[in-house]
Design goal:
Order of helices and strands: EHEEEHEEEHHHHHHHH
Radius of gyration: 19 Å
Strand order of the largest sheet: 2-7-6-4-5
Structural class: alpha/beta
Helix content: 40-55%
Strand content: 5-15%
Largest sheet: 5 strands, mixed
Shape: globular
Length: 287
Amino acid sequence: RRSISLARTVGLRNPYRAALGLTVVGAGVIASKPRTLCTAAPSAEVAAPFKPTIYQYVICPFCSRVKAYLDFCGVEYESIEVDPLLKGEIKKLRTVTKKVPIAVINGVTVEDSGNIIEVITQMGNNKEIKAFPGPDFFPADTQEWTLWSEKKLAVMLYPNISRNLEESWECFSYADDVPTWNYFQRKLVRIAGTGAMTAVNGKIKAKYHIKDERAELKETIQVWTNALQGKKFLHGDKVTMPDVMVFGVLRAIKGLRTFNEVMTENPALKEWYANVEAAIPAKKTAV
């Protein structure tokens, strides 16, 4: 059976460490950066059935692509919205960076979206996920597009959704609907978050050498639509991992001005997105 996994590491007790080659910091905290995807045999050691808990920001593209993968695999999970100001929801967790997404899987805390995706994949290879897709779901260009969704597409979203106070205010509209936050917390997150997001916009653009964020986002997206070549999905009539990764990143900003604009101006993208959305229904999860 063909599968994707991180570079093989042996001699470690935890099945996720052995399968994924990840650094574990303290008691059960996977925190290293993901390594290159490669072919590997599934592990013989199988853990108990799981229901992951995902600590997230709704508008975080890295969180969103993890959830898109879980949705496609039919995995039930709990989604917990983290207060970006206080981060009280994750203070109890043993983590290194305090950056979302963070997943708790079978008692193991996993940081970084790439690491989370790899743990899910290994569990699927171990037949712990009933609806886990077959080897054709992971084409040869999986690594290429997974990294592209992270390094090229995802980094373009923040400068676009925070171009000004009005658009930043729109981004934080989700705060009004988080049931676990009280009234004052919701208002504080929306007001303070809007100001902070707008203020940091210039630094993010400078970090990634972005000059015209909207034009560069559209150019980046065109790379993907060019690769589609008019097909329903990247590799034909069936969804593959690259589709899920790119879809997940874009779904983070669904409904925002940036999303609506790029979809309106790029019919091929809009049609592809609708096709993937139909194949990956959003799950109802606890927030």
